[in-house]
Amino acid sequence: MAGHSKWHNIQRRKGKQDAVRGQLFTKISRDIYHAAKEGGGNPDTNFRLKVAVERARQSNLSADSIQRTIAKATGTLEGVTYEEIQYEGYGPQSVAILIDIVTDNRNRTAADIRHIFKKRGGNLGEAGSVAWMFERVGQISAPMNAQTDEESLMLELIEAGASDVEANDGVLQIQTAPEAFRAVRDTLDAMDIPYEDAELTYLPSTTVALTADAADEVDELIEALEAHDDVQTVYSNAVFPSGEEEL
User: For the segment 144-200, what is each residue's pLDDT rounded down to a tens digit?
Assistant: First the structure.
């Protein structure tokens, strides 16, 4: 698996229960943010937001955190203006790191992120310093059942705009261009095919293979970045050693 995703981090740190719980909350908050950003902040009229909020409650994410995330996405928090920023930098072993930020104080957040990089052997870079190494794509994972006509489904998805569709162990892995992401996702909805994950993400065009020691250093940096309140998503071009997922 090229790159570094939140779910990948969770798998690598199975033994660190607190970290796993924090990662789950981060993903849930991100899902709420994007659902509200796309369809508005009212769960009664935004089904995706309703599902995300229900999942957050089941995971014991506080009501204040849920409302704050929705307010960030919709810009409705009184007296506060949020902006989306993307920071770029290098971690240990010259691993490229891309960070999606939502903040109400650009200067404060920049100082915080710079400090996190510096403390853990990395450097916050200038705009464009690593973004050229990543491609924006849509990714969707959809489980299939015994009744699924795999070939027909793949054709439907390709007609809807999917750029790549693969079936592995009963799960469809779908990739799209950003502009086709919603149409492909809506096609699955129309066919009553549930999906486990559906997100716009960044995939690296070049990767850096890490030793076990270097993997720990990079993981520590990414974990610290993800723990920051203003960080929505962290991407990297790190390739972790085989078997690290089971730690």
Answer: 776 677 788 889 999 999 999 988 888 889 999 999 998 998 898 888 888 877 888
Residues 97 and 145 in one domain: no
How far is Cα 134 from Cα 237, in angstroms, rounded to an integer? 8
Q: Strands (DSSP E) along the chain, which ranges? A: 83-90, 96-103, 123-124, 134-143, 162-168, 171-176, 197-204, 208-209, 231-236, 238-239
User: Residue 178's beta-bridge partner residues?
Assistant: none
Length of the chain equals 247
For residues 189 and 213, membership in a common domain is answered with: no
Q: Which two tokens stand for residue 53?
A: 């909020």
Location of structure tokens 């809506």: 186
Domain that holds residue 151: 133-204
What's the total number of domains in the chain? 2
Can you give the pTM of this predicted structure?
0.74
